[in-house]
Specification:
The chain is built from 5 helices and 26 strands. The protein is α+β, with helices and mostly antiparallel strands. The strands form 4 sheets. Strands 3, 4, 5, 6, 7, 8, 9 and 10 form an 8-stranded antiparallel beta sheet that branches. A hairpin with an 8-residue loop joins strand 7 and strand 8. The protein starts with 16 loop residues before the first strand and ends with a strand. It binds 2-acetamido-2-deoxy-beta-D-glucopyranose (NAG) (7 copies). The site of one 2-acetamido-2-deoxy-beta-D-glucopyranose has 2 residues, from loops. InterPro entries: Bactericidal_perm-incr_a/b_dom, BPI/LBP, BPI/LBP_pln, Lipid-bd_serum_glycop_C, Lipid-bd_serum_glycop_N. Keywords: Glycoprotein, Signal. GO terms for molecular function: lipid binding.
Length: 510
């Protein structure tokens, strides 16, 4: 049996956890769950609710009743079980005060045992009988309003209103006399109805409390790899419109052991673009700051330095390969192997515009000559690489691919005299294309997690770029069995080891 904790969780498709409500807090990732998304969540919710409601035992009912010509009878109903509930129509609607969910035209089937006993002056014996009855409850209406707020750093789910109303019930007795049947209906109709109403209401209350405590256990940060974590702390209250719910999370990357100065990033004003055509369940909007915080985090974690000692064309890592472009290098260190010590000198800046995402990477490349086991730095070239980034959704991750737009070179210092940058341009182009970009793309290809609860998968996602924001428009599929479905497990990417496996066919050592 699925615990009723599973109740209502799906109202929130995203990682919901928050911090202090402060008006100056900015969420850099926001998610709008559209009416289509809410309907999808509501359908799962009702399915889960029914699964956790049935079978449901109701308290025993007993009564003394007076039957004409028979006299006073002790009647009892026991083992009352709701074993089936069907919901024919349901709606979900966000409003000013909360999210209203209504299931109407619901039916429930109950089974129970009946028992009676009486004695009359006619016969000095106790007469009793027992049997089985089935009851069908029709036209049941169940309605509830869920409140959603950011409270003391947590997303708080509360049940604001809840009601269950039974319109009609019909009773079938197996066995028993006809007088019994009428007496039964008269005596118990109302009691069965109110037992059903009370029990279902109570069950919904319990479900919401359990769901709320599950939300409470959600993490504020999720690890992305060994270097960074993503701050999924909720900020601000959820925003309810008449057809959507918008929630905001901090959304910034942090180096695992570093505190980000939040005032460092500023949210750009929201652009009007959104997922309208075709309508999607979910619209996740990521500010430019999210990407720049990732860039900062990897930069600050010293991740952007590496020594290149193997390249596809190994000839380029020997002074002989540079014989004609920098003759003085070859003259001074004939036939010596070389290393390239590449160091990104400031966090790459990412700019998002409606037709383009570009990133500029400033780096220094030191040429080291390996002479008699000694590493001798001979020159340092400053390399500014301008790239454009394309994005795609892989699983629940946002993955990227960097393409080279252009680059510029300037000599920072040299122990082998001046040499013209245009001479080494084609060598640099080869190195960037065959070493640098594949290395960066190897990481970007794995992507970065979008904050989606485990068990939900993005489906038919497309990506829009607007001024300074990326918008992911997507439907969502639910793919996990009840047993593993709980919100303590987020979709977690595979951890990326600090030292990556070498990118074939050359090695890039850190
Ligand atoms: C109670 O009801 C359930 C479901 O109808 C049935 O399986 C079970 O045998 C009943 N128990 C008793 C003691 O009658
Ligand atoms: C529940 O009641 C309805 C209406 O009488 C009936 O059609 C249906 O077969 C019942 N379901 C079960 C499982 O007994
Ligand atoms: C929802 O609100 C908008 C204005 O915010 C209004 O134009 C629209 O008619 C409303 N829709 C419904 C179904 O109430
Ligand atoms: C995560 O984001 C929240 C809200 O912006 C902020 O208050 C909190 O300090 C951040 N956590 C860390 C570890 O920086
Ligand atoms: C690589 O160059 C940086 C300076 O750009 C220097 O600090 C670092 O020690 C060098 N690393 C190696 C292994 O030579
Ligand atoms: C270079 O190092 C290797 C082993 O690391 C050693 O066998 C060799 O003698 C060294 N050569 C010089 C010139 O120091
Ligand atoms: C949630 O699911 C995970 C993995 O399926 C499991 O290890 C964990 O115990 C579950 N937590 C709860 C509260 O059920």
């Amino acid at each position: 049996m699925a615990p009723s904790t599973l109740f209502f969780i799906s109202v929130l498709l995203l990682v919901p956890v928050i911090a202090q409500v402060q008006s100056n807090e900015e969420g850099f990732v926001s998610a709008v769950i559209s009416q289509k998304g809410l309907d999808f969540a509501k359908d799962i919710l009702i399915e889960k609710a029914i699964a956790s409601l049935t079978p449901l035992n109701l308290p025993r009912i007993q009564k003394t009743m007076k039957i004409p010509f028979v006299g006073n009878i002790q009647l009892a109903l026991s083992n009352i079980t709701i074993y089936r509930v069907d919901v024919s129509t349901s709606t979900v609607k966000p409003g000013d005060t909360g999210v209203a969910i209504v299931a109407s035209g619901a039916t429930a089937n109950l089974s129970m045992n009946w028992y009676y006993s009486y004695s009359t002056w006619l016969i000095p014996l106790v007469i009793s009988d027992k049997g089985h009855a089935s009851v069908e409850v029709e036209g049941m209406e169940v309605g509830l309003t869920l409140g959603l707020e950011n409270q003391e750093g947590k997303l708080k789910l509360s049940l604001m209103e809840c009601g269950c109303y039974v319109k009609d019930i019909s009773i079938t007795l197996d066995g028993g006399a006809s007088w019994l049947y009428q007496g039964f209906v008269d005596a118990f109709e109302e009691q069965i109805s109110s037992a059903v109403q009370n029990t279902i209401t109570k069950k919904i209350k319990e479900g919401v409390v359990e769901l709320d405590s599950l939300l409470n256990t959600l993490p504020k940060e999720i690890p992305v790899d060994e270097i960074t974590t993503l701050n999924v702390t909720f900020v601000n209250d959820p925003l309810l419109s008449n057809s959507s719910i918008e929630i905001e999370i901090d959304g910034l990357f942090m180096a695992a052991d570093e505190v980000v100065n939040p005032s460092y990033y500023h949210k750009n004003s929201k652009s009007p673009a959104s997922c309208k055509d075709p309508p999607k369940m979910l619209e996740i909007s990521l500010d430019e700051a999210v990407f720049n915080s990732a860039s900062d985090a990897y930069f600050n974690a010293d991740f952007m330095h590496w020594i290149v000692d193997k390249v596809p064309d190994q000839y380029l890592l020997n002074t002989a390969g540079w014989k004609y472009i920098v003759p003085q290098l070859y003259k001074k260190y004939p036939n010596d192997d070389m290393n390239l010590n590449i160091s990104v000198s400031s966090p790459p800046m990412i700019r998002i515009s409606p037709h383009n995402i570009d990133a500029t990477i400033y780096s220094d490349m030191t040429i080291d000559v390996l002479d008699a086991n000694e590493t001798i730095p001979v020159a340092c070239i400053s390399v500014v690489v301008r790239t454009s980034v394309s994005l795609e959704i892989i699983g629940n991750n946002l993955a990227g691919n960097v393409g080279l737009n252009d680059f510029s070179l300037s000599l920072k210092w040299s122990k082998i005299g001046n040499f013209h940058m245009y001479l080494i341009q084609s060598v640099m182009w080869t190195l960037l294309k065959t070493v640098f970009l594949p290395y960066v793309n190897l990481r970007l290809k794995r992507g970065f997690p979008l904050p989606i609860l485990r068990g939900f998968n993005l489906q038919d996602a497309n990506i829009l770029c607007t001024n300074s924001r990326i918008i992911v428009c997507s439907d969502v599929a639910f793919s996990v069995t009840r047993e593993v479905w709980n919100c303590s497990c987020l979709s977690k990417p595979h951890l990326l080891p600090r030292t990556q496996p070498p990118y074939t066919p050359y090695t890039v050592s850190l």
